[in-house]
Amino acid sequence: MPTSQYSSLKTNHHTKNTTKDDHNNNHQCSIIPLDFKSVSKLPESHTWELTHPNPLSTSESESIPVINLSDPKAISLMRHACENWGIFHVTHHGVPSNLLREVENQSRRLFSLPSDQKLLAIRSLDSLSGYGLPRMSTFFPKRMWSEGFTIIESPLEHTRKLWPHDHHQRDHFCNVMESCQKEMNRLAEHIMGLMFGSLGLTQQDTKNIKPKYGCQNSNGPLQLNSYPVCPDPTKAMGLAAHTDSSLLTLLLQSSTGLQVQKEGIGWVPVHAVEGALVINVGDLMQILSNGRFKSVLHRAVVNKTHHRISTAYFYGPPKDVKIEPLIQLSSPFPLYRPTTWKEYLGIKANHFNKALELIRSDITKAQ
Ligand SMILES: C=C1C[C@]23C[C@H]1CC[C@H]2[C@@]12CCC[C@@](C)(C(=O)O1)[C@H]2[C@@H]3C(=O)O
Ligand SMILES: O=C(O)CCC(=O)C(=O)O
Ligand SMILES: [Fe+2]
């Protein structure tokens, strides 16, 4: 197992005034998902005080843009989508549909294992990979109605624990997820190129910038999310509102459940579009574009009738690469100071939604 570039990150925001035991208990509670099959009523621990009424139904002009990547207008549509929404669908993306179907099948297979078997692959205190509740769970008093499996670089370490004897299943799962990482990485790099174009960078600028991000990270983090059928969806939360730390996130959702916050409107559903992938702008892209592209606040809701699965690929720079506002976009001054993805994940682990604010450059704080 290669040492992960993120493995030294620790979450220590909840250690104040607690003993080591409290800390471990607290952490265990915030990492171990419920055995969803064993409950028929929404437990108090999973009942959120703020109920979330159905989002506004969207009229044509308010729905998330769908961009056909083979359309010559894709670049200008992308600029509009990134400035106004921070999220869009892409079609004609080149990722084989049978691979996407198989990613979902394999993910269902993993999450339908008995709870005690899944717990063999539980994420450890100081690592990002493995089975468990979303990492941001410690920031919320209530538990989310979901479980996740995070793959950092390779799924092998954890799948060995899930399927110790079934080599065939394990190899198949790993092959499918690794192909998914490769395909998603290729697509993310293509979309990054289009985004640079849409920010007004010349082809030469793009050529100079791209090698900084590319290649080394061809198997970036993959997050499998599972949202089991919920007895009382209006009082539960699948994944609480957050932005992603990545440059871009590529999401496969085969049924609707994702919602985004739109200024002046509220929560807008991102309907599943057959064959499409959802692309959202992450915090590092907001930094790189000097605030032109907004990292979008989003959440996932649950439902009463079907077990929803989603898969997110987080595209970001290699570990030592500093991300800072592009010089071409930094007039009159850069809004953010340079940071690496690794450093930023550490800040996010401690300060969650305040992380972006914390790396605003001194010059803007002095204003
Ligand atoms: C590379 C990443 C990106 C992570 C951390 C790490 C692995 C898991 C990702 C998520 C997935 C769920 C939402 C989020 C907010 C979370 O809690 O874990 C994400 C977080 C981030 O985008 O910051
Ligand atoms: O399940 C979804 O639609 C959203 C998943 C997500 O936001 C994430 O994994 O970061
Ligand atoms: Fe997300």
TrEMBL record:
Residues 217-317 form the Fe2OG dioxygenase domain. Pathway: Plant hormone biosynthesis; gibberellin biosynthesis; Hormone biosynthesis. The keyword Iron applies. Residues 1-26 are annotated as: Disordered. Its EC number is 1.14.11.15. Gene3D superfamilies: B-lactam Antibiotic, Isopenicillin N Synthase, Chain. One of its GO terms (biological process) is gibberellin biosynthetic process. InterPro entries: DIOX_N (IPR026992), IPNS-like_FE2OG_OXY (IPR044861), IPNS-like_sf (IPR027443), Iron_ascorbate_oxido_reductase (IPR050231), Oxoglu/Fe-dep_dioxygenase_dom (IPR005123). This is gibberellin 3beta-dioxygenase. Transmembrane segments: none annotated. The keyword Transferase does not apply. It comes from the Eukaryota. Its cofactor is L-ascorbate. Keywords: Dioxygenase, Iron, Metal-binding, Oxidoreductase. GO terms for molecular function: gibberellin 3-beta-dioxygenase activity; metal ion binding. Belongs to the iron/ascorbate-dependent oxidoreductase family. GA3OX subfamily.
